[in-house]
Amino acid sequence: MTPTLVRNLRNADPSAPADTGTRARDWAEIQERMLAPLYEAVYDRLEVGAATRMLSLGCGSGLALLIAAARGAQVTGVDSDRDRLALARARLLPDEGAEGAPAHRARLHESGLPSGAGADGAPYDLITVFEPIGCAAGDSEGLVPALEAALPLAARGATVVLTGWGPPERCATAPVLRVAARLTESARPPRPGGWRPTLRDDLEDVAARTGLRPDGSGRVSCPFGYADQESAVRGLLSTGLFDAAVRATDRSQVEKEVAEALHPYRRPDGTVWMPNVFRYLVCTT
Predict the structure, then answer these.
(1) What pLDDT shows up at residue 5?
(2) Alpha carbons 75 and 138: distance in angstroms, whole number
(3) Quick check: helix, strand or coil at residue 210?
(4) What DSSP assignment string belongs to 215-237?
(5) Residue-level pLDDT at 13
(6) How many CA atoms lie within 13 Å of 7's alpha carbon, on the beta-carbon side?
(7) Sign of CA dihedral 260, 262, 264, 269
(8) What is the pTM of this model?
């Protein structure tokens, strides 16, 4: 895996997160592909294809949608990040608005859910949440209401896939994520939040709270591989998991400490390699 490098644009204010457009490109060109094995494993298990009508919550810049669409699925994506969604639109709807353009194979929505079912009028038979939970306390709180709002758009007996980080001992990135929690907590009084070990039943808890019935699970190896330390730092900061640390200290400090935490994973040729395991839970409505 050789991540594509993009020009490193920097904000004048070191206490602010990187420009949102730049960060979205870093996510799309460096970080998002690290989860591709997870997308593929889920699609293989569920036999995603031309008969699939999929709604993706938190679709980001659209790689998971693109892979599903390449299998023939009708895909709809929702995300609150305008810059990531613009990149998804460029990937999935490059000819949107052009005269003679083919019928859209994808629908994309910023923040709000679509007003109805899929493009063919039928309800969705697959809802995916590929933004992994389990690396920060309370990181599933926003997911529960989002699922509750989306489930009325799904067919009876539809499949819902939830994803999360694997056990910390199987995730080399876990110590790097703890940097964010430490920097955030050092600048404010202790309070619940920040990094925490992944719990075995994180996904099952979300399923129970939303009335979903678990119907199997799996683990997938998703190593994070980077061309060099700079691209590793940029990729990790593009996830948003370090935003609170940047606000609590400044971006330069966060970049410095993340780079230091990456040292054990640097190879002699300068590349960075961090083995990780992610978990998915298959549920039915």
Answers:
(1) 28
(2) 29
(3) coil
(4) EEEEEEE--EEESSHHHHHHHHH
(5) 43
(6) 5
(7) negative
(8) 0.86
Render the burial of 41-53: b for 16+ CB within 10 Å, e for the rest: bbbeebebeeebb
Pairing outcome for strands 224-226 and 272-274? antiparallel
Number of helices (H) and strands (E) in the chain: give both, helices first. Answer: 10, 9
DSSP class of residue 137? T
Pairing relationship of beta strands 106-110 and 224-226 according to DSSP bridges: unpaired
pLDDT of residue 100: 45
Amino acid letter for position 230: E
3-class secondary-structure state, position 38: helix
Q: What distance in Å separates the CA atoms of residue 248 and residue 40, rounded to the nearest whole number?
A: 37
Using alpha carbons, select from 285, 280, 284 the residue that is nearest to residue 202.
280
Quote the CA–CA distance of 35 and 64 in Å, as a whole number: 9
Place of tokens 């699939």: 52
Task: Look at the block and give the residue holding tokens 């038979």.
Answer: 125
User: What residues form DSSP beta bridges with 266?
Assistant: 272
Q: What is the mean pLDDT of each run of 10 residues along the chain (285 residues)?
A: 31 52 95 97 98 96 97 95 95 70 70 67 93 81 92 96 94 93 72 57 94 97 98 96 92 96 97 98 97
Radius of gyration of the chain (CA): 19
Give strand pairing partners of 129. Answer: 57, 162
Contact predicate 45/70, CB 8 Å: no
Q: Are 47 and 73 in contact (CB under 8 A)?
A: no
DSSP H or E segment with residue 108: strand 106-110
pLDDT of residue 16: 47
From residue 218, give the alpha-carbon distance in Å to each of 48, 59, 111, 205, 282.
16, 21, 29, 16, 8
Distance (Å, rounded) from C-alpha 104 to C-alpha 107? 7
